[in-house]
Description:
Elements lengths: L11 H24 L6 H15 L2 E2 H6 L6 E4 L2 E3 L13 E10 L2 E10 L5 H20 L7 H13 L3 E2 L5 E3 L6 E5 L14 E4 L2 E3 L5 E3 L6 E3 L5 E3 L2 E4 L6 E2 L3
Antiparallel strand pairs: 1-4, 2-4, 3-12, 4-5, 6-10, 7-8, 9-14, 10-13, 11-12, 14-15
Helix pairs in contact: 1-2, 4-5
Amino acid sequence: MCEDDRVSIDHPDELAALRAAGRVVAETLRELARRVRPGVTTGELDRVAAGVFARHGARSAPQLAYDFPGTICISVDDECVHGIPGPRRLRDGQLVKLDVTAELGGYYADACRTVAVGRVKPREQRLAAAAQSALRRGLDAARAGANVGAIGAAVQQEVERRGFSVCAELTGHGIGRSIHEEPSVPNVAWDGPELTDGLVITIEPIIAAGAGDVHMTDDGWTVRTDDGSPSAHFEHTIVIPESAPLLVTA
Length: 250
């Protein structure tokens, strides 16, 4: 996809439509986070997400674009992204990643939260806190005129400062009129394109307690850490301005 295929928000009506999709994502994440507890299945959580979508007339973007076998992606412990909801019951001490992408009125929004199931060990607590802090650092670096690599550099520095690793193969992305658009938004320093006013992207640190190397599992969807170490993932969809970024999914 070329630079002209990036989605930028140039009109108040477009921003209103994007924010409407973002509100569905934010409401879904709030409802899911309240439901996370030992004993609940990932399939039950997925049905909660489907119910929120239905109330608003929204649709699952992963289903629309890729025929994903669930409404949302739910990944547990060493699963980094794209976990398939199903009969698995959550256990005390796990980290669950709730990755929600909705389409509403032709616009797409995407966000993720890492939620502790019951009481988690100190390492897992620090890991989730590091991913959330790295997201904040990435948001601070997201300004029109800056290189997109500045986001990745800020994320990587914060993650490594806290003693963890970025899963470098997994990135943020452009979004807006489809689920995945240009530009790629890596979580490491690189020489990427310039961020422009009104550009819509996701920033999503995906990090691991171990080395950060990952692989696709046999189900063809779920990505896990190679060393079995737990991962954490936080994400927002934003609109790039000249000053502070506008969080669409907050």
